[in-house]
Amino acid sequence: MAADRPAETAPAPDRSRILVVDDAADAREVIQTQLEDRGFRVAACGSVEEALALLAATPFDLVITDLRMPRASGLELVRHVRTALPDTEIMIITGYPTIEGAVEAVKTGAEHYLAKPFTERELVEAVEAIIAKLARRRLAHAGPAADGAHGIIGASEPMQRVFRLIDRAGGTAATVLIEGESGTGKELVARAIHYAGERRGAPFVSVNCTAIPEHLIESELFGHIQGAFTGAVASRRGFFEMAGGGTLFLDEIGDASPAMQAKLLRAIQEKTIHKVGSSRPVRVDIRLICATNKDLPQLIDRGLFREDLYYRINVIDIPLPPLRERGDDLLLLVNHFRARYGRDLGRPAPSFSDETLRRLAAYHWPGNVRELENLVQRLVLLAEGERIEPTDLPATLRPALDLPRRLDRSLAEHEADYIRAVLASVGNNKTRAAAILGIDRKTLRDKLGRQG
Ligand SMILES: Nc1ncnc2c1ncn2[C@@H]1O[C@H](COP(=O)(O)OP(=O)(O)OP(=O)(O)O)[C@@H](O)[C@H]1O
Ligand SMILES: [Mg+2]
Description:
binds magnesium ion; 5-stranded parallel sheet; alpha/beta; Helicase, Ruva Protein, domain 3; 18 helices; Rossmann fold; binds adenosine-5'-triphosphate
């Protein structure tokens, strides 16, 4: 299994093409070799003119160019790529890191900048990040479910941080641990990492650690050979093998049983598995992503989770913020789900009144995005009018009526106040008021009559 370190020799299923432009032959050869060692396909040339000719002939994913070269400057290339080649990224490298150069570069649209001298590691990390970002952008345009970046909606600062971590994780083969409350989008993030990386052409296999019965753990994870046990009529591949070359997503890892934890640890450490009924070890090449809504360090303290396994899976840690900490993302998500579920309606989707949105923003969302999605779906599909009002919301989100906290009044007086407040909140619509109060219209009329 290629977890825990960057993929070194594994050829990417769909290798990216890079063009290196530098008038110094030795410098461009070093870059070319270092990138070719990482599995990229690299062409190199010594001038802007040659680069333009090459770009006209072949598509490249990334152009890496020196800034100062005789005749035409690297900035010419930046301008050309930015205006004529929207699907190509460009990164400037320069031995003259001046403010003017950097400012010029930014103005022409080069977002990527690497100052010489740089190490092999700095180069490779920069290039991998750019390629991952490019893949993500292409997916966002082509992918079936991609509505925002990776199909994950979020403009808030904590979510921007998550997106940066996804990019970074996508560029490596390191094991990732995604931590977040229920419904925060852990599975969505796991898929985004898979599709942002070089393994996107290979399978993404999702395994819920709580869903495997104790006696089937080994056979489900590692597979079995024919006749290994009663009922093993044919040999079967396990999840590790199915994810070969791709990503294995271990969901709810905090709830894995002790036996399962032990078996996972061994497979991760040895990067090999044993099928049930076979003594032959099988090497597996997978990238591992784990997710949990549990506090693993706390489980470790209580002796419920293995510390050695924790250190194996917690190489890159992506904490997902709860929805209540994402500010205005809530409004973006409401719109997103409203549009999505509105499409099924066959009529314009109802809008949300300002007061309704305020109620939604004030709520604490224990079930996070999933809870919001379910609610918006229900509201949109069941709406009778064109606009969703606070009274359409379920009881937990319904307006809390401001009744005076007086203890010297009769139940009937309280009831009268309560009924008046509900009526006012629905614009005196008696049908709606009755629905909220949980009584029928006739009973409501009777009560109103008695109260005058
Ligand atoms: N930022 C987001 N943008 C759009 N949709 C989202 C976002 N976050 C979550 N969702 C949607 O919310 C639902 C729950 O997401 P997901 O299943 O990934 O959460 P989870 O953290 O794995 O939940 P659980 O802990 O319950 O397994 C999914 O339908 C997902 O598409
Ligand atoms: Mg999940």
